[in-house]
């Protein structure tokens, strides 16, 4: 069975029509006239087996191997050749018993398509398939006349390739070449990876420290978070409970205060009513007393009249009174009347004075009540102001706690010479710009200004030695003033929304510190709003930062920081002195006003006491005058009666009717006396009761005022505590939101578990805060960066190790392949040298031939020298041989190789052309000896070769440029050859 079973071609070179050549024998001859395309079969086989050189296929470009057209035949756009092999003996390393190898190429395309058993494959797959089968490029399988001539003329190193194919080391050599290329790539990769690993290893050490620091920071932060939030939740809950209790107490005390005010008002109304009633009672009592006095006087007169009438009745004669006694009575009566008039005048004055005093007393009481109300309001206002003062003081203390390093330096300014103050205390900012300046400066507000850098270094050393936190220092002698260029200032000055450069909006208390302010704010532009800021920032290519009045910031470079923000602590730093001074001033004014009120209240009270004393004295005087007037009037009445009796002006009762009339009047007046006494008794009782009730009410009003004062103080204290607790709760809520992004309710849900030891927890929180501050700057991203870099390092280190191992393995593999190639090559040469002499003698009819290394110590790269001595000749150089001898030497070597390593297929393309008939005959017969193990396809035009072929395929061109195949029976060819005895006749018969 032939190894190459079939060739199918279409469009390859001169094969315009579909070509199909069946090979059923082991020696096949391809014959035909020159230019008929017989060598195209050889080219087709070589092309399919992977030949890449178009010149080797006798072309200039790829399109030259595609049929280019002929008379009556249009050019084709594709060339395709298929070789079908019998693989029943598993010459190919494939499980299939038949192997089809196909190659296609399209016109105007350099891309080739390869197929094995109709499956698309790569060129490399085809090359790997035919490797070590003797069919690969450079092997002995396909030999042309040029190859034979070249063999003898080749250098020993070039000649070596032929023997490598024979030795079967080509695959090892190819693998070695691939391994060497891979080795080079691996070495390059290893070098590159080593450089990267080295670079990463340099980065990873500081990153590891940073990551460890960050992990420590996170651990401290998380622990702090756990304990601080738990404490904040507890403190907040307690504060809320206390607030609820306080709110309830305040509500109750407000109700009590309202009730007390109502009671005081009611009592004062009652007191006013009772005073009026008392005044009316006094008038009624006085009136009754006067009436009673008149009645008593009248009764006395009536009694005197009665006695006089009775006496007159007894006396018979009226006695004349002396004129002197009458004159005396007239004088006494006039004096009494004058005194009564005087007393009544005084009484009227006292009554008027009493009314005035009552009116003034009422007015003073009202004014006193107003002052007491003002006093209570002042107490409340003062309480709120003191609470605000406590809040600001507490806030300031917290700020100082947060900036331990800053506070430590400021507290030790006496020993740290050259420390000026923090920026916040060195500047004054108009309230309009508080927000913008506080956002721009941020923590820089706590930067400490020093006179020199040495002063700053001394302060840093002090903080470090005392482990007292950190601070930022601005040495006035070294910081560089940073201001905008004059050109930029001119440009932005004309823009809408531009306000000023920030350093121009800040007042520096001491001009010596202006450098520090310019350093911080000299390149910051204050704008009205964000839109203006964006325009200005673009205009100056974002060289300076722009800040809006509401705190939206465009940084230098273009980054925008903005959104909603509460008044921050930095803004509070700007406001703190102003607020504390203002509140202290207000408290001072309130204290002074309260003192004045107390003085006024005391003055009113003293005046009230004085007026009450005057009223009591006036009432006593008025009552005394009433009694005196009554007595005087009674006395005057008595004297008048005596006077009348003495002068005779009084009608003397001479009869009983007059006496009875006196008795009736006396009885009526006696009744009036009793009635007046009862009424007077009742009025005096009412007066006494009123006085008692007034005293009780006044005592109660006093108690109510005391209670109101106590309640007011309690309310003030409660409201102060309420403000403090509200501030505390607000700070807790703010701390939870700003620091931990938690609402209080959410924090309660997550951190409600009670702490075992609260005091230890609070101490731990303070310690953890200090620990965090001691850590200084922490790169949180270092953990991820370290993990990424470490992962990258490990990955690359692993890759480095893999590459190093691969490099070692490649070197070992190359060494092993070198060893195998040396062994196989040396063994093959030895085997060839064993059979070559005999083969040489058969082809030459004698002589000797040997192969020799030109570098015996380097078999891996040694060239092959051929020492050929034809019969009767002894030569040292193949170039001294004739052309036929050179060809015969090459064929001798070929056949020797075939003996050592039989090839499944050998294509001989006119290799015997230079031989003379005798040598040709020996060649042809010798080929036959290999036909059992090797399939020969011989392209020839020599009769001696033709007659030793089993089948001849003839090529002809009926149409110029188009090859046509003709099968020739060997017996017919031989008869024709015998008849014509010439090659030309055979060729002519084909035409």
From TrEMBL:
State the UniProt keywords alphabetically: ATP-binding, Coiled coil, Cytoplasm, DNA-binding, Nucleotide-binding
Q: What is this protein called?
A: Chromosome partition protein Smc
Q: Where in the cell is it found?
A: Cytoplasm
What cellular component GO annotations does this protein have? chromosome; cytoplasm
Q: Name one GO biological process term.
A: chromosome segregation
Say which family it is in: Belongs to the SMC family.
Give one Pfam family.
SMC_N
Annotated residues that bind ATP are located at 33-40
Q: Which residues form a coiled coil?
A: 257-374, 580-649, 673-700, 779-806
Entry GO MF terms: ATP binding; ATP hydrolysis activity; DNA binding
Domain remark text: Contains large globular domains required for ATP hydrolysis at each terminus and a third globular domain forming a flexible hinge near the middle of the molecule. These domains are separated by coiled-coil structures.
**Native species of this protein?**
Spiroplasma platyhelix PALS-1
Ranges of residues in domain SMC hinge: 417-537
Chain's role: Required for chromosome condensation and partitioning.
Q: How does it assemble?
A: Homodimer.
């Amino acid at each position: 069975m032939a190894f190459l079973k079939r060739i199918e071609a279409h469009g390859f070179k001169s094969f315009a029509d579909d070509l199909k050549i069946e090979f059923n024998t082991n020696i096949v001859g391809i014959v035909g006239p020159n230019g008929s395309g017989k060598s195209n079969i050889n080219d087709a086989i070589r092309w399919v087996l992977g030949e890449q050189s178009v010149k080797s296929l006798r072309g200039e470009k790829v399109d030259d191997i595609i049929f280019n057209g002929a008379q009556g035949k249009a050019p084709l756009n594709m060339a395709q050749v298929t070789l079908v092999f019998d693989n029943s003996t598993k010459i190919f390393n494939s499980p299939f018993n038949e192997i089809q190898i196909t190659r296609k190429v399209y016109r105007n395309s350099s891309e080739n398509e390869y197929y094995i058993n109709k499956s698309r494959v790569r060129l490399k797959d085809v090359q790997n398939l035919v490797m070590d089968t003797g069919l690969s490029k450079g092997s002995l399988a396909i030999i042309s006349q040029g190859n034979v001539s070249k063999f003898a003329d080749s250098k020993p190193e070039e000649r070596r390739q032929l023997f490598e194919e024979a030795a079967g080391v080509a695959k090892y050599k190819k693998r070695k070449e691939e391994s060497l290329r891979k080795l080079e790539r691996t070495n390059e990769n290893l070098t590159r990876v080593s450089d990267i690993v080295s670079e990463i290893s340099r980065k990873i050490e500081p990153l590891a420290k940073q990551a460890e620091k960050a992990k420590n920071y996170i651990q401290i932060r998380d622990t702090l978070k756990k304990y601080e939030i738990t404490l904040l939740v507890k403190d907040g809950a307690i504060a809320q409970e206390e607030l609820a209790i306080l709110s309830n107490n305040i509500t109750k005390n407000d109700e009590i205060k309202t009730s007390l005010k109502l009671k005081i008002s009611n009592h004062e109304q009652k007191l006013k009513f009772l005073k009026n009633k008392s005044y009316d009672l006094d008038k009624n009592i006085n009136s009754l007393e006067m009436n009673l006095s008149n009645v008593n006087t009248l009764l006395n007169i009536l009694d005197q009249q009665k006695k006089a009438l009775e006496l007159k009745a007894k006396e018979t004669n009226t006695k004349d009174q002396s004129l002197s006694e009458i004159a005396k009575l007239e004088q006494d009566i006039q004096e009494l009347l004058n005194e009564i008039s005087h007393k009544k005048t005084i009484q009227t004055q006292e009554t008027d004075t009493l009314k005035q005093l009552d009116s003034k007393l009422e007015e003073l009481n009202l004014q006193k009540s107003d002052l007491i109300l003002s006093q209570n309001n002042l107490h409340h206002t003062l309480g709120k102001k003191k609470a605000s003062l406590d809040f600001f003081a507490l806030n300031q203390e917290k700020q100082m706690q947060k900036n331990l390093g800053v506070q430590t330096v400021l507290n030790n300014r006496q020993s740290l010479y050259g420390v000026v103050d923090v920026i916040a205390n060195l500047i004054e900012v108009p309230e309009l710009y508080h927000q913008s300046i506080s956002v721009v400066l941020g923590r820089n507000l706590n930067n400490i200004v020093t006179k020199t850098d040495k002063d700053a270094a001394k302060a840093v050393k002090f903080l470090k030695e005392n482990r007292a936190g950190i601070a930022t220092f601005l040495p006035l002698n070294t910081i560089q003033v940073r201001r905008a260029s004059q050109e930029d200032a001119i440009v932005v000055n004309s823009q809408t929304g531009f306000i000023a450069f920030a350093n121009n909006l800040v007042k520096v208390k001491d001009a010596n510190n202006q450098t520090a302010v310019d350093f911080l704010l000299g390149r910051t532009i204050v704008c009205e709003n964000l839109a203006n800021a964006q325009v200005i920032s673009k205009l100056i290519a974002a060289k300076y930062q722009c800040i809006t009045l509401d705190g939206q910031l465009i940084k230098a470079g273009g980054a925008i920081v903005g959104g909603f923000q509460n008044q921050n602590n930095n803004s509070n730093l700007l406001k703190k002195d102003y607020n504390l001074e203002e509140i202290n001033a207000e408290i001072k004014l309130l204290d002074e006003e309260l003192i004045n009120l107390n003085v006024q209240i005391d003055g009113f009270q003293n005046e009230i006491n004085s007026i009450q004393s005057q009223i009591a004295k006036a009432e006593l005087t008025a009552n005394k005058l009433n009694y005196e007037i009554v007595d005087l009037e009674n006395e005057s009445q008595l004297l008048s009666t005596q006077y009348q009796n003495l002068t005779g002006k009084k009608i003397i009762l001479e009869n009983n009717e007059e006496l009875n009339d006196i008795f009736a009047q006396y009885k009526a007046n006696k009744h009036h006396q009793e009635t007046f006494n009862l009424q007077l008794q009742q009025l005096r009782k009412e007066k006494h009761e009123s006085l008692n009730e007034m005293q009780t009410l006044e005592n109660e009003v006093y108690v109510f005022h005391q209670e109101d004062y106590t309640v007011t103080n309690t309310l003030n204290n409660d409201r102060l505590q309420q403000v403090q607790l509200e501030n505390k709760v607000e700070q807790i809520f703010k701390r939870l939101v700003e620091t931990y992004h938690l609402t209080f309710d959410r924090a309660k849900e997550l951190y409600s578990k009670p702490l075992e030891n609260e005091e230890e927890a609070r101490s731990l929180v303070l310690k953890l805060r200090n620990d965090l501050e001691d850590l200084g700057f922490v790169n949180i991203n270092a953990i991820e960066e370290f993990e990424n870099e470490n992962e990258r390092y490990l990955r690359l280190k692993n890759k480095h190790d893999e590459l190093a191992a691969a490099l070692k393995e490649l070197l070992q593999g190359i060494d092993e392949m070198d060893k195998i190639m040396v062994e196989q090559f040396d063994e093959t040469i030895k085997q060839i040298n064993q059979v070559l002499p005999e083969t040489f003698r058969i082809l030459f009819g004698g002589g000797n031939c040997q192969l020799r290394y030109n570098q015996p110590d380097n078999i891996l790269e040694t060239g092959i020298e051929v020492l050929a001595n034809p019969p009767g000749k002894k030569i040292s150089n193949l170039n001294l041989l004739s052309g036929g001898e050179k060809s015969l030497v090459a064929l001798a070597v070929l056949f020797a190789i075939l003996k050592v390593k039989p090839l499944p297929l050998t294509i001989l393309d006119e290799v015997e052309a230079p031989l003379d008939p005798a040598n040709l005959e020996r060649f042809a017969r010798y080929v036959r000896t290999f036909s059992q193990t090797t399939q020969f396809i011989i392209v020839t035009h020599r009769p001696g070769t033709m007659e030793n072929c089993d089948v001849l395929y003839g090529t002809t061109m009926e149409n110029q440029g188009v090859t046509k195949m003709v099968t020739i029976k060997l017996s017919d060819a031989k008869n024709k050859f015998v008849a014509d005895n010439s090659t030309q006749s055979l060729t002519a018969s084909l035409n």
